[in-house]
């Protein structure tokens, strides 16, 4: 990375010490709105408008965050801001920062469902500086968040494990025809409950509201064959180490793992698609500057660069990435995939807390 980007990685600290992780730096407590102007085209920022401003960018870590930082080098060069890096995203930590009035994160990558469910409590509303005019059809600005990328919860499988490849969600639950361990999230039921219901014969149009008990009953049939992951990095570790023969994984992580030498395929029917969002916590030191960073991210060139680095799409309809074979294989909105299923954000926003508790009880049971 160019020397204009300052990077730090902070360890988890107790809420009372939340201010110690990221130094306020010049610009703390300021509002850069007057310097930035009223509006900006997606992908642009007023040159030099954020000289002396420090922003802390927090995301999921690993290759995806490295790619995000690479894309944002252009923002630091144009705006004059310094970006301090932190991670991984931790919802309890973000909540503690807001509730203790010790906000040190300025822009945070979160799951869209979590953002929708915490808009009024923890997140700042969008500023007028955000330009969503180039979003692909179906994506819009949220009340308290901006779509950052698109990913799929896909049925991934070790190509060397089976004589014939699985073709549908029902195969994930068929341990006789497709023996071996299956990997699912340890902490987040989003995507996994939908997969269980699709495997049990529920049509996509009838998924919501989710029949949770039916989904868990279906998952009970393979409980002894499950292994659990808690992060994107653990997904890649499972694929690279042979701990499982199948998994419900994020599409981009399959691409990363294959690029590193794994040989995993994805079932091209019914990916369960979702978005990650960029959000600004309530009490952020300079919300206008944080929104300017997000608006820069939304440009077509930025979207193309990020897709080339990660395979994840940003949702800019004008992005034209030059993808390698690993990335092309996991483009879950492409014509290679059929019958895409989209996470119902409204349902999950209303039920995430209850269903997460229920899921963790089930995984620990």
TrEMBL record:
<dbReference type="InterPro" id="IPR006059">
    <property type="entry name" value="SBP"/>
</dbReference>
<keyword id="KW-0732">Signal</keyword>
<protein>
    <submittedName>
        <fullName>Extracellular solute-binding protein</fullName>
    </submittedName>
</protein>
<dbReference type="Pfam" id="PF13416">
    <property type="entry name" value="SBP_bac_8"/>
</dbReference>
<feature type="signal peptide">
    <location>
        <begin position="1"/>
        <end position="20"/>
    </location>
</feature>
């Amino acid at each position: 990375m160019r020397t204009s980007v300052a990077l730090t990685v902070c360890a988890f600290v107790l809420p009372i010490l939340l201010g110690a992780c990221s130094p306020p730096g010049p610009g703390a407590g300021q509002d850069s709105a007057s310097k930035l102007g009223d509006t900006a085209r997606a992908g642009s920022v007023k040159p030099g408008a954020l000289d002396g401003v420090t922003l802390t960018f927090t995301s999921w870590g690993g290759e995806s965050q490295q790619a995000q930082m690479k894309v944002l080098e252009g923002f630091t060069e144009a705006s004059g801001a310094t970006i301090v890096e932190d991670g991984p995203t931790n919802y309890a930590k973000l909540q503690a920062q807001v509730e203790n009035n010790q906000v040190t994160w300025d822009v945070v990558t979160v799951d869209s469902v979590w953002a929708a469910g915490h808009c009024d409590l923890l997140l700042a509303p969008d500023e007028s500086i955000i330009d969503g005019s180039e979003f692909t059809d179906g994506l819009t600005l949220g009340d308290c968040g901006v779509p950052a990328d698109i990913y799929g919860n896909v049925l991934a499988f070790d190509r060397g494990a089976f004589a014939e490849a699985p073709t549908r969600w029902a195969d994930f639950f068929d341990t006789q025809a497709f023996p071996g361990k299956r990997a699912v999230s340890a902490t987040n039921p989003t995507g996994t409950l939908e997969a269980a219901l699709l495997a049990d014969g529920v049509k996509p149009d009838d998924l919501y509201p989710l029949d949770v008990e039916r989904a868990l009953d279906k998952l009970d049939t393979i409980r002894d064959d499950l292994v659990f992951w808690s992060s994107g990095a653990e997904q890649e570790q499972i694929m690279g180490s042979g701990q499982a023969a199948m998994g419900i994984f994020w599409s981009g992580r399959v691409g990363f793992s294959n690029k590193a030498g794994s040989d995993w395929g994805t079932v091209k029917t019914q990916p369960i698609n979702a978005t990650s969002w960029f959000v600004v916590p309530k009490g952020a030191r300079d919300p206008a500057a944080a929104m300017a960073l997000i608006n820069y991210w939304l440009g077509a060139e930025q979207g193309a660069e990020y897709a080339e680095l990660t395979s994840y799409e940003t949702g800019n309809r004008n992005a034209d990435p030059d993808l390698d074979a690993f990335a092309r294989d996991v483009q879950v909105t492409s014509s290679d995939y059929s019958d895409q299923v989209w996470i119902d954000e409204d349902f999950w926003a209303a039920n995430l807390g209850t269903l997460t508790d229920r899921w963790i009880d089930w995984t620990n049971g």
